[in-house]
Amino acid sequence: MEILEKLQSGERLNYEDGVKLWDLDLFDLGKFAFAIRKEKNGKNVYFNANRHINPSNLCADTCKFCAFSAHRKNENAYTMSDDEIMRIVDETVARGTKEIHIVSSHNPFVTPQQYLGIFKAIKQKYPLLHIKAMTAAEIDYWRRKWKMSYEETIGLMMQSGVDSMPGGGAEIFDEDVRDKICKGKVSSEQWLRIHSLWHARGRQSNATMLFGHIESRAHRIDHILRIRALQDESLSRANGGGFNAFIPLVYQRENNYLDVKGFLGSVEILKTIAISRILLDNVAHIKAYWATSTLSLALVAQDFGADDLDGTIENESIQSSAGAGSKKGQSKRDFIDMIGTAGFVPVERDSLYNQIEIYE
């Protein structure tokens, strides 16, 4: 088979090749994906000590797949005060957290100055704490709501202490699918442009893909290859900017408005991760985000190209609102024990994949 010959030779695959990968047996895909993973990252499985904070769930947009967002008349709507956010930061830093991951809704009643102010307050108090914040969808919402250009927002984020960007808002890049699941939110081209601008400033970000809803396998290949193309562009600048990880997010089906009948099995999830590793030759890390796939399957995914589990999280609201069992996070000890039992090397990392401690 021609596709197997290309895989064996290490040839870079195109869109047509990517679509053909789905026809291969899971274990054939796993063999090639694991070889790439081993070349790039050995038998390391990375994780970090992080804390997710979602300042508000009151949202102006209505994405059909989202179970987290609320609207003005919803009794479950909330908006945290600065004091509440700082109390969480103080408590989690005392427990050894190295990263604060702040993603919020598109709340029309919270100004950019309020968000930037809390970033600045956190960084002033804890200058070594990594702040990962502001998805491309949030940056685009500020443009729509507050008439702030992408360049202006990115400059203010950097001035306020934001160190890296999360990958949220990417969903699936195909615009026909986006019209059905998140109409009116950041477009695929806008998402890519925002990350390109961030990379041009020498900064790192993540890239995500939400899969397992109404998209096709071909849509996933298109999405992955657009990430690869932007990474080629970003790495050509040689300024340190680019994607440090790709995160395939498994769609969670509860409490939302997408009428998805089936649900992905483990084979399809593992194939998606393996294909991601094979196609994304220029992205160093593939994350099996345990909050959307369960920790057990995320560990299995390490044999199929993934090399990262994300982190301890401590409190997870977005995926758990849609049925994921991730609300209370995961302990560092559990990560270390389970990774070691699976035959891999547990490596605690910082947000940019610098190794903090290897547990052998």
From TrEMBL:
Superkingdom of origin organism: Bacteria
Q: How is the cofactor bound?
A: Binds 1 [4Fe-4S] cluster. The cluster is coordinated with 3 cysteines and an exchangeable S-adenosyl-L-methionine.
- Biological pathway: Quinol/quinone metabolism; menaquinone biosynthesis
Q: Which residues make up the binding site for [4Fe-4S] cluster?
A: 59, 63, 66
What's in the keyword line of the UniProt record?
4Fe-4S, Iron, Iron-sulfur, Menaquinone biosynthesis, Metal-binding, S-adenosyl-L-methionine, Transferase
Q: Tell me the ranges covered by the Radical SAM core domain, including all copies.
A: 45-281
Q: Name one GO biological process term.
A: menaquinone biosynthetic process
Q: What does the record give as the reaction this protein catalyses?
A: 3-[(1-carboxyvinyl)-oxy]benzoate + S-adenosyl-L-methionine + H2O = 6-amino-6-deoxyfutalosine + hydrogencarbonate + L-methionine + H(+)
Q: What are the binding positions for S-adenosyl-L-methionine in this chain? A: 65, 171
Q: What is its EC number?
A: 2.5.1.120
Q: Which Gene3D superfamilies match?
A: Aldolase class I
Cofactor(s) required for function per UniProt: [4Fe-4S] cluster
Q: Name one GO molecular function term.
A: aminodeoxyfutalosine synthase activity
Entry function: Radical SAM enzyme that catalyzes the addition of the adenosyl radical to the double bond of 3-[(1-carboxyvinyl)oxy]benzoate, leading to aminodeoxyfutalosine (AFL), a key intermediate in the formation of menaquinone (MK, vitamin K2) from chorismate.
Q: HAMAP family attached here?
A: MqnE
- Which family does this protein fall into? Belongs to the radical SAM superfamily. MqnE family.
What's this protein's name?
Aminodeoxyfutalosine synthase
User: Which species does the entry assign this protein to?
Assistant: Campylobacter gracilis RM3268
Which lineage? Bacteria, Pseudomonadati, Campylobacterota, Epsilonproteobacteria, Campylobacterales
